[in-house]
Specification:
Blueprint: E1 3-7, H1 12-21, E2 26-30, H2 49-59, E3 63-66, H3 84-101, E4 104-110, H4 132-144, E5 149-154, E6 156-157, H5 168-177, E7 182-184, E8 188-190, E9 193-194, H6 195-207, E10 212-215, E11 222-223, H7 224-234, E12 244-246, E13 257-258, H8 264-270, H9 277-289, H10 292-309
Parallel strand pairs: 1-2, 1-3, 3-4, 4-5, 5-10, 6-9, 7-12, 8-13
Antiparallel strand pairs: 8-11
């Protein structure tokens, strides 16, 4: 079994990737903070090249998957306050250490670097979005580009055990299930994918040693209103009277935020279709009723106990 080091398991995407892939890879989980205070496998200062090199030498992974708060989707861009230069320095340190160690590197970025009016942005589409999340995505990608590196852009959602650190999908589910108003925006379009579905295709990409830039997201372009409606169907909440309150701008000032990703390259390389919107949301609902969320919580509680013991 090959070894996979995941940096960023203290984020919703990272922890779902960890849980989905741990039966197929020998996983080594780490937090994404520069000072390692959230690490699941010992402290690592990702901003320190020597510390990064030391951990790669200790664990000798075949692949490193690097994700973090910058991997959040365009629908979760609000509140992101990362520093592009700092994130790029950390990514550059990791990329250099991976090349020196002979380890392959996969970096997860997001659709937040794109904006309309163009639909279905391809891998070579110019990134023109503004804001801290878009700038951080661009800076990280520029820092890690090189031989053997895989950059995966996505728009992932999934369950989180981290309190308020929830995805748009989880916020919508909570509002619907509690009978509260659910703010959505008719003019925000994307191609969402469930984080565990992302893991399925990421497993293929790592096993086949993909490199370069690749879009791995859902195949259906949808706006937030339709996403919320489909989520209600998946959870059996359609009988409840829950108004969806559109966050429309004044007439004449409404702009379409178009971050949908073209996944043609991934579909050709996987030789299998990427998931439809309702398929992913049905699995999202199953994870709520099953023990998936309990497993996520157990991972966090286990780490908390480990840190207290240390």
């Amino acid at each position: 079994m090959e070894k996979l080091l995941i940096s960023g398991v203290d984020t919703p995407i990272g922890i779902n990737l960890l849980l989905a892939l741990q039966d197929r890879w020998q996983t080594v989980p780490f937090g994404s903070t520069s000072h390692g205070d959230s690490s699941f496998a010992g402290s690592c200062d990702w901003a320190d090249p020597l510390d990064v090199q030391r951990h790669l030498a200790i664990h000798s992974p075949d692949w490193v998957v690097h994700c973090g708060e910058w991997s959040r989707s365009s629908w979760d861009a609000a509140g992101f306050d990362g520093e592009p230069a700092q994130a790029a320095d950390v990514a550059a340190n990791l990329a250099q250490a991976c090349r020196a160690q002979g380890t392959r590197l996969c970096v997860i970025t997001s659709d937040a670097q794109f904006v309309g009016p163009r639909m279905f942005h391809a891998e070579d589409t110019r990134s023109t979005a503004t804001g801290p999340l878009a700038e951080t995505n661009r800076a990280i990608e520029a820092a890690v580009r090189g031989p053997g590196t895989l950059i995966v852009r996505t728009h992932a959602y999934g369950w989180s055990p981290f309190g308020e650190a929830t995805s748009f999908a989880q916020r919508v589910w909570r509002a619907l299930s509690e009978g509260r108003d659910c703010p959505v925006d008719d003019d925000r379009y994307a191609t969402p994918i469930l984080a565990t579905d992302l893991a399925e295709f990421l497993d293929v990409a790592l096993t086949q040693c993909w490199h370069g830039v690749c879009h791995l997201s859902g195949i259906e372009r949808t706006n937030q209103r339709r996403f919320a409606a489909e989520l209600a169907v998946a959870f059996g909440l359609t009988g409840r009277v829950v108004p969806l309150v559109a966050t429309d701008a004044p007439i004449g000032r409404r702009l379409v935020s178009e971050t949908s990703l073209n996944t043609g390259l991934a579909r050709r390389q996987c030789a299998t279709p990427l998931p439809m919107l309702r398929e992913g949301l049905l699995r999202f609902a199953t994870q709520c009723d099953g023990n998936w969320r309990d497993q996520l919580d157990a991972i966090v509680q286990s780490d908390d106990s480990h840190q207290r013991a240390a």
